[in-house]
Amino acid sequence: MCGIVGYISKNANPESLHLGIEALKRLEYRGYDSAGFAFWDERKREIVSQKAVGKITSLEQKIDPRNSFFANPLILHTRWATHGGVTEKNAHPHCDCKRNIWVVHNGIIENFKILKARLEKEGHKFTSETDTEVIAHLIEKFFDGDLEEAVRKSLGYLEGTYGLAIICRDDPRKIVAARLSSPLLIGLGKDQYLVASDPSAVIAHTRKVVYLEDGEIASISPEKFVIYKEKKPEDIEWSQEQYEKAGYAHFMLKEIMEQPETLEDAMRGRLIIEEGTARLGGLQSVEKKLRQVDKIYLVACGTARHAALVGEYMIEECAGIVTKTDAASEFRYRKPILDRNSVVLAISQSGETADTLAALREAKARGILTLGITNVVGSSQARETDAGVYTRAGPEIAVASTKAFTSQLAVLALFALFLGRQRQLPLTTGESIAKELQRIPALARRILENSAHIRELAKKYQGFENFLYLGRKYNYPIAREGAHKIKETAYVHAEGCRGGEPKHCELALISENFPSICLAPNDSVYDKMISNIEEIKARKGPVIAIATEGNQDIKNLADDVIYVPETIEILAPILNIIPLQLFAYHVAVLRGCEIDFPRNLAKSVTVE
Ligand code: M6R
Question: Ligand 1 within 6 A of 401 CB?
Answer without folding.
Answer: yes
